[in-house]
Amino acid sequence: MLDRDEDILKAAEDWQKAGRGVALATVVETWGSAPRPAGSSLVINDEGTFLGSVSGGCVEGAVVTEAMDVIQSGKPRMLEFGVADETAWNVGLSCGGTIRVFVEKVG
Amino acid sequence: MKLAILHELNAERAARRPVILVTDTESGEQRLVKAKDFARDPLRTELEKQLRMGKSASVEAGGKKLFLNVYAPTAKLVIVGAVHISQALAPLARSLGYDVTVVDPRTAFASPERFPDIPLIAEWPDTALPPLNVDAYTAFVAVTHDPKIDDPALLHAFERNCFYIGALGSRKTHAKRADRLRAQGARESDIARIHAPIGLPIGAVSPSEIAVAIMAEITAALRLPPKEKEEAA
Q: Is B133 left (phi over 0), alpha (psi -120 to 50) or beta?
């Protein structure tokens, strides 16, 4: 993929400068057929507003929830989603792949 | 991510300079490596490989799990000549993710009817090209067959260090072109950079097939490591 989600990182910077708590979630590994490649990212602020995507919409809700904790604690964490995961029945990837998502606070 | 790193990352992206963000996914530690600093980085082999492929990836180095997030500028394609080949080339390049612009001062050629949804500039190269910020992430093709248009365009492409420069024309046509460019001050090393005849030799006949040959050659220039590139050529 040549093109990237151009405005997401700019939004992260703008939100942070406007005094919002901000987290960045990035796909760091994929196995099988994952909807979005490594490097895809989602930016979340403390109001729950988010931009971008780490999957085709399957797991964004769960990532946003985790991101709220990361904004609070300041500690990064690694999330994993996929059919082999026990949470798959709730938030799994319908395509059958597995992804790892790194969530970190901005600022 | 520290705000200072995010700020620098956004500044580099805005300037269309390639960078890789290296994250230790266990500790959360990060550093931003600019492409010009790759050569003296301990991870240089991995950094160079991932940038060339334009792909982010997790790697293990020195007992650490690192994520290399590649931020490469969107590649551009500047097509000088709103000819039949360009009508096939522009949409093909766009489907491959390139930002495409077509330049041709001849308004009968550079018409929106012939190039729906493609940015068109109906100006001479000396007016049209400078604002396009042609750079090292730009592929440049000159296909008008008219020296008055192609030659100044190629001289501009040399100056801007495009990763690919191609020009339409047989070997004979190209030899004449090389003489003209030399007379206008082009260096031998610049002339040697022109891919002519343009496109990989796949026996292309129709404009669409020629477009495929050109995009295949551009893809090789973008993705293959230098050594394999020489072997392919």
A: left
